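User: As part of a screening pipeline, I want to sanity-check one entry by hand. Below is the sequence and the SMILES for adenosine-5'-triphosphate. Please return the complex as structure tokens so I can compare it with the automated output.
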Amino acid sequence: MVKNNKSVGLSGDFEILIGHCKACAIRLTTAEVPEIAKKHAILKRVRDRLFIQDLSSKSGTFLDGRQLPKKTWEEIVQKAEGRNEIKLGKTSIGIDAQLFRGRPRAGIETTALYYKVSDKLICNGAYIRATPGTMTAIMGPAGCGKSTLLDLVNGYRTPTTGQVFVIREQQKINVHHDYGKVREWLGYLPQDDVMIPELTVRQSLNYCLRLQFMGLAAQIRERIIHQTCRNLGFDKERLNKFLNTVIGSSESGIRGLSGGERKRANLAHELIAMPLILFLDEPTSGLSSVDADKIVRLLQSVTRLDDLTTMATIHQPSRDTYERFDNLLLMSHGGKIAYYGPSQEATRYFEQVTGTSSVGRNPAEYLLEILDNYNYNEKLIEYFKQGSLKHQFHLIMPMAFFSP
Ligand SMILES: Nc1ncnc2c1ncn2[C@@H]1O[C@H](COP(=O)(O)OP(=O)(O)OP(=O)(O)O)[C@@H](O)[C@H]1O
Ligand SMILES: [Mg+2]
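Assistant: Here is the complex for your manual check:
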């Protein structure tokens, strides 16, 4: 970012002093920045969040044209386009986009997974290959094993046979053997949420932050909560109302959030911890197609902006929602894969395999109907296994498909 800086660019958290005295890690001379104070400001990074605080300097610290209040932490929120501008007095210093990347990104790769419960195979050769910046939809009929597959991949259940790896830089970390190493990077939104109904959204998010980030000042926690909820589509007026609402639940008899708000509150709990890999089990169930699409659009934007690896099970998405996913993993009964590849190519693939037409159809409906109404199941799975169409369709093939 600026010269004399020894710490910036390292991965991990830091807290560095900017000024012209010797104690500063970013030491600037008055020739470089005429109005620089001895200790002008502090720059701090926690996971991928950057904060700045003005240390009561005479000439002030400015963020994107606005003077910062003294001795108050402000989050530097990365712009989707262009760069943030920080000024010490009248002099601009650059903020490198890479400063917002406190940690290398992570993907997921598994071998073919098998999971048996009392001799019944619930996962039968399904697998995942997902890279940062992509969204994968997992679809399939009710009870086919979607939630089970997510549980196997996120470390909640252990496959009877097969391995799950987090891929990060050159490393391949086995999720089940080294769960402690990867836990912080994994976010999981379960099918049924587990929020405490008596708390307000603000209280609940605050507890969550205190557990995830020890020693963060209350002021910073409040800023993170605001930022996360703004990213989830709550503007100024609605934000405070949302944060002050009691979560509630039908079981507890406490009236609280609406269905759509509840989903977003739930998602806020996951995003606030800044996962690198995000698993979501039916993040849109029970929502109208408009609200469902809003949620998926939000997921798409955080996935792109933060380079997350996102995977979600989803029921009956609209065409718009379906098309927001990069890849589709279509599961068939008994935990088998019928298709795994680019979501855009799925309908064409099945048209070719079955000789049917998807013209004018909702893609998700068409695909599930193929799995349900036709007696194609075994044939489709066999086609896919053999990769018979893989030269025309870039299907995602596993590392060891046939390993039992
Ligand atoms: N611990 C278990 N013991 C016995 N059967 C189980 C267990 N866990 C899952 N199953 C069975 O495995 C199958 C797959 O369940 P899973 O919850 O993964 O399906 P799903 O695709 O997520 O379904 P839905 O669309 O309804 O959420 C079901 O038949 C379920 O009853
Ligand atoms: Mg499920």
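Points to compare against the pipeline: The mean pLDDT is 87. The first strand starts at residue 14 and ends at 19.
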